[in-house]
């Protein structure tokens, strides 16, 4: 008994001694007093509290130790495999071929593209040896092949070499680029402008430079592919209004405003994105109304004038000149140098703030080499010519009127394009009785389309394959008669809304009125022949 | 540290041009010693080459008959200082040397020792030069400087918004409009980048060749606005992407382009599928595929858009793209447009790649666990900010095992790497046909613009129809096409037909369609192939050095020498550089953000100005700010010497020499240049 109590006592003294040394040693540690005070105050004679603390500490340590690099593996969908199983799965996996070989139709489609031998222009020579009237190439103002432009391009080539060999940020900004930016800004009457080296890459870079996640964009349902891609990249909230319908636009603007008020969300950037003359069908926007609406609802306007710049207005300044709206009312005015000034590249004109912002945030501006100097000077020269020769634009408009006068009367052609548009889209018109797949959208216009959905409520119905085939036959028929025209090529399946197949004519001022009339007659006859045969 | 004026003094804020022309005493002494060293090195080199009785190497451009000149039209400023060695060589050419290039565009260098062949040594694994970490104090000061600048910026914003509201209006909601660019979004640009904005977007004029003409500017308001002074300064250009030196206003390529402008004008008028296809397009595409040694190629009018418009045609939803974390913005843009899933792996880390491959193949698509339709690995051949090469030998092995498709972006490596200039596949000795998609640009090595995609016929034809470029984007313009054709033919060499054929009939045949051209070309299916004369436009003037390929060989070997010399020279001096020894892109690590501006300004305001590119976050990780040199075949050895001396001087001043290993004084590096370049492995 005593021995056991003695040994117990020994144990207790040992325990208390070791506790004492531990305590003194603990208090020797710097900052230990703080820890002790913390433990004391947190314990407060309640073991539950201490337990909670301990659990918290363990949890914190566990979180810290957990590997953060393999986020996916810890996900609940992750399946654990051992090495052998992975090897088997790897062996088993057979990927699809990188690209499906072309079908015979696609092959024919690719082969049907005419090849121009020598310079393009109003009457180019084709690989078949034939000289044709060109109603397909973008050369509205007839600047392609202009001798003055050629001379200044050669002169620039000798001074600058060809390539700019660098992005604008790193010694790729040449004085000729600054000059062309100034020329464009002066020509349009904006504060500044910025050059992109490809027209197609311009707006798909301009939109995401300004519109971020959470911003609101109200866009036309018929916008071109480049805009669609810009909207996709920007990741912002997109609302759609009916193609070229200002009433629908106002509806959508109203509903967005209501939605915002309801949610009491913060003020976000809001943009209206549309085109001057639409690439899909040649329709023209009502710019004064657009500007009125954008001001009323406090939106900014991004206007793609890729087709209209250089083809409408007294000297080709585009929609702003045609409607006499100051270009400064359009916040971001995007245009193509390639189509209108017969050179290469695109631009965005606007205020200094808008332009300078893009110099850092415009992806395809920052990460791409700037335009070759010779092409830049060619564009400057082109602007100069347009400015001094209003007769070019009047000749162009006269040619457009001449072509329209003939084609408007044709009973198997529908033309959705504006009468002043230099691109004329020709669609197949089916006789009213024989409309198996085409119902006109006249039914109940009272119900507006859902702005969240890019597809309109009463979508036009058409058989793409059939119409494209017919149109291709017409193109080939016209080519046989010496007129080069083209279908409006689109990436079927990749466009948000499938546009009705059409033949796109691009009128040029370089042709005489007589040639235009002749060509239009050929096109009309080709339509009559191919469609008539089908009937 | 030597007593010098504060770094601010190097800012180009002073409108006087005298600072560029002024010769300080130290400048003179270095120039004199430099001259001595150059002539000594030249003499040594000459005796060595004559002793070795050079038989194999081609004489430098001595075929043509025209004399050494710096033609008047390229000398943009008559008041130029001719003693700086930029416009005219310091040592005038001897009577036996004939140079056909303008020295300011393409330097005169007759010494055949200053040549090298860019090639991976077979049998050795590729390993990039190990990335060295700087001492901790450098890292610490780097972080501190960022924190300081950020705090200061926020303070200025805070005070500014209250006291100078008008200046901040565009950053704040106003009149019912949200700010176009909120103060938070633009903070980095306004408060960090603006401080050193004088180092970016410097306007230039003239040929961006070996030298470049700067349009001087100054800022009266701390870089908010830049005012041109109206003066010009010629500077050594070690910044432009001009690897093979084809940025020239004179010479056979420029002659060809001039002829094409006169013939074709400057426009092709529309997209490729909407009647914007010229015969030149087919010729260029056929030549590109021949150059690369693959079946077919397509070209696009903009380099950035080549990636961003074509990748969506390759992959779609249900496909996986595995992308190197440092891939170019255009690749990311294209992948985002495609809707495919993306996974990234650590830069050039083949182990991480294999692990990732095993994971994604075994797991399949997220949630559904269905197998991926296809997996596309996208890497860059030569990474433009790192100078590292894609580890193709290992990737090819992984490709066999894991069956992914390989897309190599050769924007920087095509023309610049490999014994024949065919890019990284050539450098590593890999069959180009084993890579599924070869992408590259014409901006860098060919002095043109735009890009190409090359691969098997089936893939390319599909991309012609399904990529965005051919349907919507404008086609490449004739002058650019001609520059591509001429420069490429010049690298390849041209096989002249043995007997004079009826050129008209054969050309008509070639022009009829691209498939005919391809079949005509496949007669000699050798890699690297030469350009058959029949495939070139019949009107194109051909010069002798182009035909025998000596021009191309000279450019390639000069670039290879220059790249290796600068890379290894800088390391020998003690700098930290990244990347492969053979890479023409040489990043020199600066770390501290403040040093970027000072480095750039000091280089630009030297007696012989040198322009450099400085890059920092977001193009690089936050701490590794760097200066990037882009070498060119146009540079002479004296130019590289000059860069090395400048770096040495500034490196001492800015405490940049943090690299490990043995260090040599700069004069020793310069005098033993050939030895440095030819050493198979450099001890470090």
From TrEMBL, chain A:
Q: Where is the Aminotransferase class I/classII large domain?
A: 131-466
Name the Gene Ontology molecular function terms of this record: pyridoxal phosphate binding; serine C-palmitoyltransferase activity
Keyword Kinase recorded: no
Q: Which InterPro entries match?
A: Aminotransferase_I/II_large, AON_synthase_class-II, PyrdxlP-dep_Trfase, PyrdxlP-dep_Trfase_major, PyrdxlP-dep_Trfase_small
- Return one Gene Ontology term, BP aspect: ceramide biosynthetic process
RNA-binding listed as a keyword: no
Q: What class of enzyme is it?
A: transferase
Cellular component, GO annotation:
endoplasmic reticulum; membrane
What domain of life?
Answer: Eukaryota
Gene3D superfamilies, alphabetized: Aspartate Aminotransferase, domain 1, Type I PLP-dependent aspartate aminotransferase-like (Major domain)
Q: Name the PANTHER family on file.
A: CLASS II AMINOTRANSFERASE/8-AMINO-7-OXONONANOATE SYNTHASE (PTHR13693), SERINE PALMITOYLTRANSFERASE 1 (PTHR13693:SF2)
Similarity section? Belongs to the class-II pyridoxal-phosphate-dependent aminotransferase family.
Q: Please report the name of this protein according to its UniProt entry.
A: serine C-palmitoyltransferase
Species of origin = Lentinus tigrinus ALCF2SS1-6
TrEMBL record, chain B:
Say which family it is in.
Belongs to the class-II pyridoxal-phosphate-dependent aminotransferase family.
Which SUPFAM superfamilies does the UniProt entry name for this protein? PLP-dependent transferases (SSF53383)
Q: What is the annotated localization of this protein?
A: Endoplasmic reticulum; Membrane
Positions of the region Disordered? 1-22, 45-78
CDD domains listed in its UniProt record: KBL_like
Q: Supply one GO CC term from the record.
A: serine palmitoyltransferase complex
Provide the alphabetized UniProt keywords.
Acyltransferase, Endoplasmic reticulum, Lipid metabolism, Membrane, Pyridoxal phosphate, Sphingolipid metabolism, Transferase, Transmembrane, Transmembrane helix
Regions of compositional bias (Polar residues) in chain numbering: 9-19
MF terms from GO for this chain are: pyridoxal phosphate binding; serine C-palmitoyltransferase activity
The EC number on file is 2.3.1.50
What InterPro entries does its record include?
Aminotrans_II_pyridoxalP_BS, Aminotransferase_I/II_large, AON_synthase_class-II, PyrdxlP-dep_Trfase, PyrdxlP-dep_Trfase_major, PyrdxlP-dep_Trfase_small
Catalytic EC class: transferase
Q: Per its Swiss-Prot or TrEMBL entry, what cofactor is needed?
A: pyridoxal 5'-phosphate
Q: Name one Pfam family in it.
A: Aminotran_1_2
Q: What is this protein called?
A: serine C-palmitoyltransferase
Pathway involvement of the protein, from the record: Sphingolipid metabolism; Lipid metabolism; sphingolipid metabolism
- For whether the record's keyword set contains Transmembrane, the answer is yes
> An example of a Gene Ontology BP annotation on this entry?
ceramide biosynthetic process
Reaction(s) catalysed (UniProt annotation): L-serine + hexadecanoyl-CoA + H(+) = 3-oxosphinganine + CO2 + CoA
Compositional bias (Low complexity) at which positions? Answer: 45-71
């Amino acid at each position: 008994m005593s021995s056991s109590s003695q040994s117990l006592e020994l144990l207790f003294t040992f325990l208390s001694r070791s506790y004492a040394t531990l305590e003194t040693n603990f208090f020797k540690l710097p900052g230990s007093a703080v820890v002790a005070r913390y433990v004391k105050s947190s314990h407060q004679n309640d073991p539950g509290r201490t337990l909670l603390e301990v659990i918290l500490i363990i949890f914190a340590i566990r979180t810290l130790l957990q590997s953060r690099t393999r986020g996916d593996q810890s996900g609940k969908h992750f399946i654990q495999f051992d090495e052998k199983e992975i090897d088997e799965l790897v062996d088993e996996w057979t990927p699809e071929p990188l690209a499906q070989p072309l079908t015979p139709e696609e092959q024919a489609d690719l082969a049907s593209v005419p090849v121009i031998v020598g310079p393009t222009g109003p009457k180019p020579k084709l690989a078949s040896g034939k000289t044709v009237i060109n109603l397909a190439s973008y050369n509205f103002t007839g600047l392609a092949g202009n001798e003055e432009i050629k001379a200044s391009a050669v002169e620039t080539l000798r001074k600058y070499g060809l390539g700019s060999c660098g992005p604008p940020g790193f010694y790729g900004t040449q004085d000729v680029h600054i000059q062309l930016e100034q020329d464009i800004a002066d020509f349009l009457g904006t504060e500044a402008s910025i050059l992109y080296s490809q027209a197609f890459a311009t707006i798909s870079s301009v939109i995401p430079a300004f519109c971020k996640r959470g911003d609101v964009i109200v866009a036309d349902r018929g916008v071109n592919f480049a805009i669609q891609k810009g909207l996709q990249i920007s990741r912002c909230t997109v609302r759609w209004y009916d193609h070229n319908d200002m009433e629908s636009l106002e509806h959508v603007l109203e509903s967005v405003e209501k939605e915002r008020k309801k949610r009491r969300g913060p003020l976000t950037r809001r943009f209206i994105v549309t085109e001057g003359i639409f690439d899909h069908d040649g329709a023209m926007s009502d710019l004064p109304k657009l500007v009125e609406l954008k001001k009323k609802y406090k939106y900014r306007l991004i206007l793609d004038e890729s087709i209209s710049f250089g083809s409408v207005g007294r000297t080709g300044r585009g929609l702003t000149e045609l409607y006499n709206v100051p270009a400064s009312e359009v916040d971001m005015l995007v245009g193509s140098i390639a189509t209108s000034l017969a050179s290469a590249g695109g631009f965005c004109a606007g205020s200094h703030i808008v332009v300078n912002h893009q110099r850092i945030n415009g992806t395809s501006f920052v990460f791409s080499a700037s335009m070759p100097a010779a092409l830049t000077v060619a564009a400057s020269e082109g602007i100069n010519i347009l400015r001094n020769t209003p007769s070019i634009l009047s000749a162009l408009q006269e040619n457009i009127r001449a072509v329209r006068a003939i084609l408007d009367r044709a009973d198997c052609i529908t033309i959705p394009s504006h009468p002043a548009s230099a691109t004329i889209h020709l669609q197949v018109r089916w006789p009213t009785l024989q409309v198996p797949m085409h119902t006109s959208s006249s039914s109940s216009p009272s119900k507006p389309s859902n702005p969240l959905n890019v597809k309109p409520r009463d979508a036009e119905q058409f058989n793409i394959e059939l119409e494209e085939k017919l149109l291709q036959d017409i193109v080939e028929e016209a080519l046989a008669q010496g007129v080069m025209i083209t279908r409006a090529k689109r990436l079927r399946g990749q466009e948000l809304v499938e546009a009705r197949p059409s033949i796109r004519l691009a009128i040029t001022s370089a042709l005489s009125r007589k040639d235009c009339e002749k060509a239009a007659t050929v096109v009309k006859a080709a339509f009559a022949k191919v469609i008539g045969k089908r009937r | 540290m030597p007593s010098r004026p504060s770094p601010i003094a190097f800012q180009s804020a002073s409108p006087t041009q005298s600072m560029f022309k002024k010769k300080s005493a130290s400048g003179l002494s270095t120039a004199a010693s430099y001259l001595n060293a150059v002539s000594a090195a030249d003499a040594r080199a000459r005796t060595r080459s004559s002793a070795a009785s050079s038989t194999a190497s081609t004489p430098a451009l001595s075929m043509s008959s025209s004399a050494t000149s710096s033609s008047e039209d390229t000398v943009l400023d008559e008041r130029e200082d001719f003693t700086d060695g930029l416009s005219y060589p310091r040592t005038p050419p001897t009577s036996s040397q004939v140079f056909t290039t303008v020295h300011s565009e393409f330097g005169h260098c007759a010494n055949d020792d200053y040549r090298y062949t860019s090639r991976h040594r077979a049998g050795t694994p590729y390993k990039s030069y190990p990335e060295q970490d700087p001492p901790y104090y450098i890292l610490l000061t780097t972080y501190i400087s960022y924190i300081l600048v950020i705090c200061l910026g926020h303070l200025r914003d805070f005070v500014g918004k209250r006291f100078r509201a008008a200046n901040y209006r565009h950053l704040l909601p106003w009149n019912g409009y949200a700010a176009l660019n909120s103060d938070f979004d633009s903070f980095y640009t306004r408060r960090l980048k603006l401080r050193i904005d004088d180092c970016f977007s410097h306007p230039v004029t003239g040929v961006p060749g070996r030298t470049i003409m700067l349009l001087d500017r100054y800022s009266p308001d701390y870089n908010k606005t830049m005012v041109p002074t109206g003066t010009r300064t010629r500077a050594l250009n070690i910044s432009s992407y001009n690897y093979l030196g084809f940025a020239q206003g004179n010479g056979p390529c420029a002659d060809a382009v001039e002829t094409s402008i006169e013939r074709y004008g400057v426009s092709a008028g529309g997209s490729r599928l909407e009647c914007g296809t010229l015969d030149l397009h087919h010729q260029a595409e056929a030549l590109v595929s021949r150059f690369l040694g693959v079946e077919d190629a397509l070209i696009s009018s903009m380099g950035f858009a080549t990636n961003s418009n074509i990748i969506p045609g390759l992959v779609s939803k249900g496909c996986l793209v595995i992308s190197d974390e440092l891939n170019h913005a255009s690749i990311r843009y294209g992948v985002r447009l495609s809707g495919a899933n993306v996974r990234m792996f650590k830069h050039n880390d083949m182990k991480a790649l294999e692990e990732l491959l095993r994971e994604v193949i075994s797991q399949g698509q997220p949630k559904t666990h269905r197998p991926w339709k296809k997996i596309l690995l996208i890497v860059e051949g030569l990474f433009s900010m790192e100078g590292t090469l894609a580890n193709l030998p290992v990737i090819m092995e992984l490709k066999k095992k894991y069956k992914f498709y390989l897309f190599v972006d050769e924007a920087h490596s095509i023309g610049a790497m490999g014994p024949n200039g065919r890019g990284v596949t050539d450098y590593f000795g890999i069959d180009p046909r084993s890579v599924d998609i070869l992408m590259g640009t014409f901006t860098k090595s060919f002095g043109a613009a735009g890009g190409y995609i090359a691969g098997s016929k089936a893939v390319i034809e599909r991309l012609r129809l399904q990529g965005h470029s051919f349907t919507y984007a404008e086609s490449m313009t004739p002058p650019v096409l001609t520059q591509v054709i001429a420069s490429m033919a010049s690298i390849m060499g041209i096989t002249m037909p043995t007997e004079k054929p009826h050129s008209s009939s054969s050309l008509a045949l070639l022009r009829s369609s691209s498939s005919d051209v391809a079949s005509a070309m496949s007669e000699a299916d050798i890699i690297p192939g030469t350009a058959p004369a029949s495939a070139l436009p019949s009107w194109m003037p051909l010069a002798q050095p182009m035909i025998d390929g000596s021009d191309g060989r000279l450019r390639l070997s000069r670039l290879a020498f220059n790249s290796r010399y600068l890379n290894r020279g800088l390391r020998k001096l003690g700098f930290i550089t990244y990347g492969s020894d053979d890479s023409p892109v040489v990043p020199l690590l600066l770390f501290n953000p403040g040093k970027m501006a000072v480095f750039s300004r000091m280089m630009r305001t030297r007696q012989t100005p040198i322009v450099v590119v400085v890059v920092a976050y977001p193009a690089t990780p936050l701490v590794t700010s760097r200066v990037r040199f882009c070498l060119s075949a146009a540079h002479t050895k004296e130019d590289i010497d000059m860069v090395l001396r400048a770096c040495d001087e500034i490196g001492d001043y800015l405490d940049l020499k943090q690299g490990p290993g043995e260090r040599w004084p700069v004069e020793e590096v310069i005098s033993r240049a050939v030895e440095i370049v030819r050493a198979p492995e450099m001890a470090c």
